[in-house]
Write a structure and sequence with these properties.
single chain; mainly alpha; Non-ribosomal Peptide Synthetase Peptidyl Carrier Protein, Chain A; 54% helix; 0% strand; globular
Length: 97
């Protein structure tokens, strides 16, 4: 596969941008206009337990990975930063494995 031209690289969303977009979709219109700090608890941003399940499934779909059962913990889904750290671990282990 050939590398993307520089102008297309500028439009490829980062993992954080993709994650924020997914969380905004799940939280709905109320999240569209407000900042989503990465260190604030997702529950404090208004995410319900059902939405948390949607986030888990959405992360798997968006990032084309399976979250191992041992990674499905309240700590890994406590905040945007926690989900981002888990994603980094999972994608690093996929590249190494």
């Amino acid at each position: 596969m050939s590398p993307l031209p520089h102008s297309q690289l500028d439009t490829v969303p980062t993992a954080r941008e993709r994650l924020l977009s997914l969380i905004r979709q799940i939280l709905g219109p109320a999240a569209a206009a407000r900042p989503l700090p990465i260190d604030v608890r997702l529950a404090d941003l208004g995410m319900t337990s059902i939405q948390m399940v949607s986030l888990m499934l959405g992360v798997e779909s968006e990032f084309q990975l399976t979250i191992p059962s041992q990674e499905i913990t309240p700590e890994n889904f406590a905040s945007i930063g926690a989900v981002e750290s888990m994603l980094q671990r999972l994608t690093d282990s996929t590249r190494l494995g």
